[in-house]
Write a structure and sequence with these properties.
2 copies of one chain form a homodimer. Chain A has 334 residues and is an alpha/beta fold. Chain A has 13 helices and 7 strands. At the A-B interface, β3 and α3 of A face β3 and α3 of B.
């Protein structure tokens, strides 16, 4: 059992109100590297920050790490456009940090990153892998790509109040800057990403295509960003069945219609309820609609449920959280 | 239990007759990436080659991988100056491929790589790690650094006939080009590496310093290149005890006086006999003095011996070898 994590950045995250994946905007660029370190080592190592939302909700990486400590799955991190150094070992596929989606070409090297990640997906010898993402601002670029491809699906948010109106306006500006009509990049995944996406979408879509080509059993470990990946892969001509595993929080998001997306893109969708309760600060924010998914959390909870280990993983989350809080206090000097 | 592998390159390897870490000179640059992939995945993934010596002896990575499959230790690869992409996840510490030791300054960024690796060593949360190397040509740069520091220790070779005379001449030319007398860089590890070393020496010496500073129990997993690392660390002022674990083949090398090096550098040396016999092509070349050590092999054999698992690891080596031969046949199209 191996989780591949594509970690990258887009300057789209810096748009005011777009992302909750950091306590403040200046720290967002550190979030993907910190998430990778939390999965790899159990706490940030080089990243100077523990990712929390502005309200204090810890990154979903904490939940995925808790599952990893309980279940013991392998991890491979792909540098899908990190802008800060990370202590997590990463595979390089030549991806660079993404620009603002309101620019004409936020991912100039989309085609090369797709192809390089596809080769890596083809070469990886594991019979079964899941692929996850961490990229602040990623649901906005996911929406951008869906619109460029002409797909109706909508996207979730790590904020309790999904700023969907803002995202739609940002995407409209992006389409205008790119000189694209809605649906004009249908059948052209590289063009959709180059004009409206982010480097993580390029790397994950490329990886999935390559892995599926060689018969790897592949699971998309995530929410609506992974729906955008599925759309990219389908528009690239891949017809093999694909599985998507996410949390019940994404499935319950009124902005999201997972059933329609599953039908439109031939996705086998599983949404797992982690069974969180309000009695712990690492879990309670999810009940209020924060975070919802990310860094493979839904897949990890599905694996835990299959192993009858959800209660143990919830207990472990408290341990991981205490460790992260301790690390944050050290980082603050408090 | 975690093995850190520093993988890098030096153009010194291209000097005729210096290195056996590849079937032919044009393939040497792929060896460190292939070694990392063999440890991570069990076979080369992106590297277009299985590293073998000119006579067909497989890389010591095969033995370390066999131990890993049997004992299940963790792995972190540091990019210590790779010149080709690898599918193994790597931690970046800003190291670049090294130049020819006969140039005035083969490692211009030695000080920065030392410092960056030291920070990584300090940050890594594991209580106990071993560090190994893969860098074709690395014993010649190790000799260069030992001479620059004024240390008497000599170096081993992956060739049955150690071309020590050639290495001494290459190092003399390097010292002349660098404007250094023997011993002139004593107490200045960064200067010794910048003028006479390679990027792997910079990364390993920096990592060791940082790890030891924070109380990590550290083992140097290798032969005479790790003696050079110990010398660098001692010349940097570190006085904590250091362990070195290598193979009996290095200890038996008449060119090497491990006992004197251990005494001079306060090293606790363990040399383990893998118990290889002539009945398998993956093991037999070691009996003729080939390969000897590398990619953490001696440390891995020591761990196997401690676990009473040497016979199982030897059996596993045959399996790993068959897989590598299969991969080589695919690469050849044969």
């Amino acid at each position: 059992m191996r989780l591949i994590l594509a970690a990258g950045t887009t300057r789209t995250a810096a748009i005011d109100g777009i992302s909750a994946a950091g306590a403040e905007p200046s720290l967002l660029a550190h979030t993907p590297g910190a998430d990778a370190e939390i999965l790899a080592y159990g706490r940030p190592v080089r990243a100077p920050v523990v990712p929390v939302s502005p309200s204090g909700c810890p990154t979903p990486a904490a939940a995925t790490r808790a599952a990893r400590e309980q279940l013991g799955f392998d991890l491979t991190v792909i540098d899908a456009g990190l802008s800060k150094p990370t202590a997590a070992p990463t595979v390089s596929v030549g991806a660079a940090p993404g620009g603002d989606v309101r620019e004409p070409e936020p991912v100039p090297a989309a085609a090369a990153a797709l192809e390089s990640a596809r080769r890596f997906g083809r070469a990886l010898p594991h019979p079964e892998v899941a692929i996850a993402e961490t990229i602040p601002g990623g649901t906005t670029t996911a929406l951008g790509v869906l619109r460029a491809l002409g797909e109706d699906a909508s996207v979730s948010s790590s904020l309790p109040e999904n700023p969907l109106g803002l995202k739609e306006r940002v995407v409209e500006r992006g389409l205008a800057a790119s000189g694209l009509e809605v649906g004009e990049a249908a059948g052209e995944p590289a063009r959709a990403i180059r004009r409206m996406g982010d480097p993580v979408l390029a790397v994950v879509a490329g990886f999935v295509s390559g892995a599926v080509e060689t018969g790897t059993a592949l699971t998309l470990a995530g929410g609506t960003q992974m729906v955008a990946v599925a759309a990219l892969v389908r528009h690239g001509g891949e017809e093999s069945p694909l599985a998507l595993e996410t949390t019940s929080y994404v499935a319950a998001d009124p902005a999201v219609d997972l059933a329609s997306a599953a039908a439109a893109l031939d996705l086998d969708v599983t949404a797992t309820d982690p069974g969180f309760s309000a009695d712990h600060p690492a879990a309670a924010p999810y009940l209020d609609g924060e975070a919802k998914e990310g860094v493979g959390m839904g897949w990890a909870m599905t694996r835990a449920a299959e192993a009858d280990a959800l209660p143990a993983v919830r207990d472990r989350l408290a341990t991981v959280y205490d460790r992260l809080v301790g690390a944050a206090e050290v980082a603050d000097g408090s």
